[in-house]
Amino acid sequence: MFDFAKKAAPPTKCAFTHCSLPSFVDQNQPPSKRKPFSIFASQHFNQTIHLTLPEELYMLIEQRLRDDENVQHYSLVYISLGDIVDSDFLNKHVKNGNVMMLSEGRPTVDNCFSLRDGVLRLELDQPTYERDEILIMAVIELNLRLPSMRHGKKGFGRIEWAFKNVLNHSLSWLFCDLDEPARPLEGITEPPITKYHPISKTLEPKVQYIKDARVPVFIPPQGFDDHEYVAELLEWVGLAKLASPRIREDDSIDAYLSRYAVPIARDMKGNEMEPVTRNLVNVTWCGFASPLFVEKLFMNVRRVAGEEWLALSVSGFQDEGYSVVNSGQDVLAWEWPAANR
User: Fold this and answer.
1) Per-10-residue mean pLDDT for the chain, 341 residues long?
2) Strand partners, 120
3) Whether 294 contacts 312, CB under 8 Å
4) Read out DSSP for 86-109?
5) Longest Cα separation, the chain
6) CB–CB of 79/163 below 8 Å?
7) Rounded CA separation 188/7 (Å)
8) Which of 17, 88, 131, 290 sits 20 to 30 Å CA-CA off 332?
9) Is 64 helix (H, G, I), strand (E, B) or coil?
């Protein structure tokens, strides 16, 4: 009667990359087309950032992680699309500013909107775009920085009409002004966003210590031809950011309940390379983070790390994400797309 088999979930995709970076990378001009920097830039809106590293390395950068340059402020605000194309907001925050915004909504189910680099992206459900004579596509991108996007222009007037008569509902938005990362919105000169009474928030790190964790060899001498070992490394990174007892030296869970074992690499002669026991630290940021925030975080830690390793795991708002492990000059990266793609 019910054919559930035809609606099975698609297989999970995960791309793996092994690359290298020079010991010194200019923090002001990183190689944006090389990984992992291209990975950072490709994920526009980040919700959770996990940084796992040895305790000795954390002690060296603890204060730096709390400096102003590693702090990002954002806000929760309730506005409509019509408010975004209002003259004051449009000119200050979009045309002459650099803000990123993300609305509430479930992709492929609700109307979802986002704003980044002056481009307003509208993802519309079928009933909306079928009744709207102006917006005839399911996904529309409007570059609001174009000279034609200003009040008095015929094309812009049609957009205003659509936002007033069809897409006229106020929604909860996450708002981040990338030009003013070092201070909250309640500054001396109030920007246009303040008249909508935003609730200011700050990305603050939360620290968790992991004692006596078993750490695998991240760069095996035999390379990465063993795809199973690559998958096991990603699994270990996932367990480490959760501070799972399974990776601890004193883990004594019954094998009937869990058969997990920390991955073991082999040297060029085929001998096993046992994991080492170290104290680790998890640092987590949760909120609304830009790709630039992630890039700066990676660069600041890597600059101090030297030959040490660090693991950075970042997830977006649609279950998309990536994990990056840096060990010396070697970089391992895993990427997976959003669940609805």
Assistant:
1) 45 84 84 93 95 96 81 92 92 92 87 94 72 60 92 87 89 91 54 92 93 93 86 95 93 87 86 92 95 94 92 93 94 87 56
2) 115, 142
3) yes
4) SHHHIIIIIISS-EEEEE---TTT
5) 74
6) no
7) 55
8) 290
9) helix
What's the CA gap between 311 and 325, in Å, rounded?
4
Residue found by looking up tokens 């990603």 in the block: 234
SS (H, E, C) 204-226: CCEEEEEEEEEECCCCCCCCCCC
**Residue type present at position 54:** P
Does 36 sit behind a cis peptide bond, omega within 30 degrees of 0 on the bond before it?
yes
C-alpha 67/C-alpha 23 separation (Å) is 24
Amino acid symbol at 324: V
Residue 73 main-chain phi, psi, to 5 deg? -100, 145
Specify the pairing of strand 73-79 against strand 119-123: unpaired
Sheet holding 73-79, edge to edge: 139-143, 119-123, 112-116, 99-103, 171-177, 73-79, 199-202
Residues 16 and 333: beta-carbon distance below 8 Å: yes
Dihedral sign (CA 150, 152, 154, 159): positive
Please, which residues bridge with residue 289 across strands? 46
Could you give the 3-state DSSP secondary structure of residue 253? Answer: coil
Place of tokens 């600041």: 300
Q: 141 with 119: CB under 8 angstroms? A: yes
Strands 276-289 and 46-54, how do they pair?
antiparallel
Closest CA to 119 of 145, 137, 139, 98: 145
């950011």: which residue's tokens?
Answer: 241
Report the distance separating Cα 83 and Cα 214, nearest Å.
53
Task: Give the residue ranges of DSSP H helices in 87-171.
Answer: 87-89, 126-131, 154-165
Tokens representing 87 are 């003259």
